[in-house]
From TrEMBL:
It comes from Triparma retinervis. Component of the spliceosome. Present in the activated B complex, the catalytically activated B* complex which catalyzes the branching, the catalytic step 1 C complex catalyzing the exon ligation, and the postcatalytic P complex containing the ligated exons (mRNA) and the excised lariat intron. GO terms for cellular component: U2-type catalytic step 1 spliceosome. It is found in: Nucleus. Residues 177-293 are annotated as: Disordered. Its main location: nucleus. This is Splicing factor YJU2. Transmembrane segments: none annotated.
Length: 293
């Protein structure tokens, strides 16, 4: 941050107190300001050309904005052919030296007056050389009639060449216009054909209105399931099927049957033995009866 009380101030060696404007809040300052600015108008403008300050050498480029004063030029150079000339006051952006320049209605330009030098501009030299050549040509034609005739013939020949060149350019432009019209018509026809093909495809694929899809209710699904379950018969297991031929459930059933058959076989053997014992007993009794007889 800067110093609050600003005790130390830099004063350059080329400082001129007389150039410092008086304070406008005092009576003397207002009087001096009114006397100094009499006939001046404060405006904001851009400088019309690049310049260099004569004091500090700072460059101020064309188009830079300034708050400046404008006044009418007085004296012999005040007007040119009845056109009023104006003087503009600006200050250097570094050293605040006053710089003045004037309007130049004769050359349709501005003229540097004091405080700075105008930078070199090449386009001014080009315009000046063209004007000088034109003036020299007119003077030469006034002095020599044959030279004037030759210049007129040369100008007429140049005009004919320019006219032919213009006609050629017009023909090329008209040809381009016709080609563009043909291309646009072809593109329009292609777009129309594509639209017709797309319309036909949509009518063939997506235009079937007879096909109607109905959603089945949940009750119908339950009824169909119950009826199908009632009508189905229980699975049958073949007794002659082997475990390899039948499934896993059938194999279990067959194994259970085999176990039952084994139990039944043991009971049957006991019964057979009992029957056999009875038979032997009967036979022995019969034999004993026969012996007793």
């Amino acid at each position: 941050m800067g110093e609050r009380k600003v005790l130390n101030k830099y004063i350059p060696s080329d400082f001129d107190p007389s150039l410092v404007p008086k304070h406008k809040n005092t009576a003397a300052g207002r009087k001096a300001a009114n006397k100094k600015d009499a006939g001046k108008t404060q405006i904001r403008m851009m400088i019309p050309f690049s310049m260099q300050c004569e004091n500090c050498g700072t460059f101020m480029y064309r188009g830079k904005k300034f708050n400046c004063y404008k006044e009418d030029v007085q004296g012999s150079k005040a007007k040119y052919l009845g056109i009023q000339r104006f003087r503009f006051y600006i200050k250097c952006i570094v050293c605040s030296r006053p710089v003045t320049f004037l309007t130049d209605p004769e050359n349709n330009d501005y003229e540097m007056e004091s405080g700075a030098t105008r930078n070199y501009e090449i386009w001014k030299d080009k315009n000046k050389t063209v004007e000088d050549e034109k003036e020299g040509k007119e003077e030469e034609e006034e002095m020599d009639a044959m030279k004037a005739l030759e210049n007129r013939v040369e100008e007429s020949r140049r005009e004919v060449e320019e006219q032919d060149r213009l006609e050629e350019i017009k023909a090329l432009n008209s040809r381009h216009v016709r080609m563009e019209n043909v291309e646009t018509s072809q593109e329009r026809d292609e777009a129309r054909e594509e639209a017709e093909i797309e319309k036909e495809v949509q009518s063939v694929v997506f235009g079937k209105k007879d096909v109607i899809l109905k959603r089945l209710s949940d009750d119908d699904d339950d009824e169909d399931f119950t009826t199908s379950y009632k009508n189905t018969d229980p699975p049958k297991v073949a007794s002659s099927a082997t475990p390899k031929e039948s499934g896993g459930l059938k194999g279990v059933v067959l194994k259970k049957k085999k176990k039952k058959r084994k139990g039944e076989g043991s009971d049957g053997a006991a019964n057979k033995k009992a029957k056999g014992g009875g038979a032997t007993a009967t036979t022995t009794t019969k034999a004993g009866d026969s012996d007793s007889d």
